[in-house]
Amino acid sequence: MLRAVRLGKAPCKPSGTPFLLTWTWGAPPGPALGPERRCSWRACAQSPRGDAWHPRWTGQVSVPGGTRQSPINILRRDSVYDPELPPLRVSYDAASCRHARNTGYLCQVEFEEAATGSGISGGPLENHYQLKQFHFHWGAADGRGSEHTVDGRAFAAELHLVHWNPTRYPSYQDAVMGEKGLAVTAVFLKPGTLHQALQQLVDVLPQIKHKDTQVALGPFDPSCLLPDCRDYWTYAGSLTTPPLAETVTWIIYKKPIEVAPSQLSAFRALLFSAVGEEEAAMVDNFRQPQPLMKRTVRSSFLGTEAQMRA
Ligand SMILES: [Zn+2]
């Protein structure tokens, strides 16, 4: 069974109160689980928060407030065009790419942390944000897999490029929990034609089939995974995996990229399980949309009626 262990003494409040929990698998330990467990994360989550956890998560969950969680459902009609939003500037150093890794929850490509010139700026960002890693979320079938949805529609997969703010923080680890610490760009993936640039990564996936395996990757510039149209939505949100820190400026490209069905299949052939464990296919590693909670989603583009219907 999945159980929550409360680490702090924080009272259970609907929102606004920091609390710290850890998720773990197995039987309850007995004495520690008295009436206090009524104030579990799950109980707190019987609220506008919705389905806020994933059964494959491990580690600590720190939710400072819970008022700007991610992902969200983007409603085109409710997004606000901001003519002051400049284009996002993207410049990555391909040589700083290090390896691809199966984390046990998703597939992640990691970059050298000291690669100072490699990152994004402009758009809604006040500072330059440096690339740390990118990863994917995907579904067991094409009709689901993305974390963000648009007008209730999910895509087959979603790419997240995770950047941190070296102007404000000395390291990625410090930036994760800090105000304006992270900026994540998101790209939707839909089935279509083969994506040549993605294939370099797809080719090594069989080598990281199991949890906690990794493979060295040659130079790789992830800007080749961005759509040709750079229109985006932006809003203030959180990480979508523990610690769910509410420190993320999200930038979500409007236009999806196309990938071949065979490329999606390669992701679905990865495993949540480690070598020697019972095999569990790595699919549906996405979090459900979270309540918007009075946040505004801004767009860098003026939506037309035709685009609304598309
Ligand atoms: Zn992600």
Could you characterize what this model shows?
Its cofactor is Zn(2+). One of its GO terms (molecular function) is zinc ion binding. Reversible hydration of carbon dioxide. It catalyses: hydrogencarbonate + H(+) = CO2 + H2O. The chain has 310 residues and is mainly beta. The protein folds into 2 domains: 2-47, no CATH class; 73-309, Alpha carbonic anhydrase (Carbonic Anhydrase II, Roll), CATH 3.10.200.10. It contains 5 helices and 18 strands. The strands form 3 sheets. Strands 5, 6, 7, 8, 9, 10, 12, 13, 14, 15, 16, 17 and 18 form a 13-stranded mixed sheet that branches. The model is unreliable at 1-50 (pLDDT under 50). The site of zinc ion (ZN) has 4 residues, from strand 10. Zinc ion binds next to strand 10.
What layout of secondary structure does this protein have?
Layout: E1 2-6, E2 19-25, H1 41-44, E3 59-63, E4 73-74, E5 80-81, E6 88-91, E7 97-102, E8 107-111, E9 119-122, E10 129-138, E11 149-150, E12 157-164, H2 172-176, E13 182-191, H3 196-202, E14 214-216, E15 232-237, E16 248-253, E17 257-259, H4 261-268, E18 298-299, H5 305-309
Parallel strand pairs: 4-11, 5-18, 13-16, 13-17
Antiparallel strand pairs: 1-2, 2-3, 6-9, 7-8, 7-14, 8-10, 9-10, 10-12, 12-13, 15-16, 15-18
The structure holds zinc ion.
Zinc ion binds at residues 135, 137, 160, 240.
Mean pLDDT score:
84
**What value does the Rg take, in angstroms?**
19 Å
Helix- and strand-based class? mainly beta
Provide the helix percentage.
under 10%
CATH architecture of the largest domain: Roll
Give the uncertain stretches in residue-range form. 1-50
CATH class placement of the largest domain: Alpha Beta
* Biggest β-sheet description: 13 strands, mixed
Instruction: Write the CATH homologous superfamily of the largest domain.
Output: Alpha carbonic anhydrase
- Bound small molecules, which ones? zinc ion
Treating each run of at least 4 consecutive H or I residues as one helix, how many helices? Answer: 5
Number of strands: 18
Q: Quickly count the domains.
A: 2
Topology as H/E string?
EEHEEEEEEEEEEHEHEEEEHEH
Quote the distance from N terminus to C terminus.
43 Å
Approximately what portion of the residues adopt beta-strand conformation?
25-35%
Any idea what the shape is?
globular
CATH topology annotation of the largest domain:
Carbonic Anhydrase II
